[in-house]
Please model this.
Amino acid sequence: MEIGISAFAETTPDPETRQTIPHAQRLREVVEEIELADQVGLDVYGLGEHHRPDYAASAPAVVLAAAATRTSRIRLSSAVTVLSSDDPVRVFQQFATLDGLSGGRAEIMAGRGSFIESFPLFGYDLDAYDELFAEKLDLLLQIRSSVDSVTWGGGKHRAPIAGLGVYPRPVQDPLPVWIAVGGNPQSVVRAGTLGLPLALAIIGGMPEQFAPLVQLYREAGRRAGHDESVLKVATHSHGFVAPTTRQATDVHFRPYQAVMNGLGHERGWGYFSHTSYEAARSRRGALLVGSPEEVAEKILFQHQHLGLDRFMLHLSAGTMPHADVLKAVELLGTEVAPLVRKELSPTA
Model:
């Protein structure tokens, strides 16, 4: 099982100082985190796309390209590309460019987006939320499979392409495209039917509750005639790791609470208290915060119930000291990942 990190390049106010770091500083920190993740042996780093003041990465491919020349083995992915409000030609070109710069380590994680600010920004109607994604995913996959030229009949939201080339071509053939979902069964079935790997965001509830979705995905893939080897499953969960449980919660709780209550105010969620936090941190909860041993145990718990090919720890939800985040990256690579790999080794 691959183990890695996902991030949104947050620039929320520090709950202790109330200060907000500049976007430019946060972007440079992200590149440093990716470089360290590569050095400590993590498998993948995924960076999300947002278009609002509390996130710095509106162009993940650019940030990942900056990291590509400073790393050697880690895979570099969006997490996610909001394909519904983007142009598939440009998405493919950007990630094919990243693939070339990285020597074949780029991935696209495409999703409809849990935030909606990109739709009015780029002139799209939210009423066409799912229709946009389906149409643009179809074009992206057509570009991916058409080496010499692309012929695509067009759709309601995108003009046809008549025998035109899309360059550069990636090193990888095909360029990996994952489908990211938050729990929508139709999205899960679409990923399986297309034979694309699935990334599940598990940020609430209990991980085992997602087992029926994984089964639905794999059944859809089998019915469509895809080999099980291509039906890969990843999860992404919020968390933090420090040398001890107390250190982890001391660093993580207040920034995380601030983010959850900020988003909760926007979305109508209930108040996220310390009791909520501890419940989410429990063995069957979705939040992975603690010592390396605790975090490894919870990754293995997800693997046990979902049969994972990849796990991504989301660092960091909330603004935390950069030194603490770097320490979490180091521990994930040097202590958590070896514990998980040892347990999953055929000789274990």
Remarks:
- The chain has eleven helices and twelve strands.
- The chain has a mean pLDDT of 96.
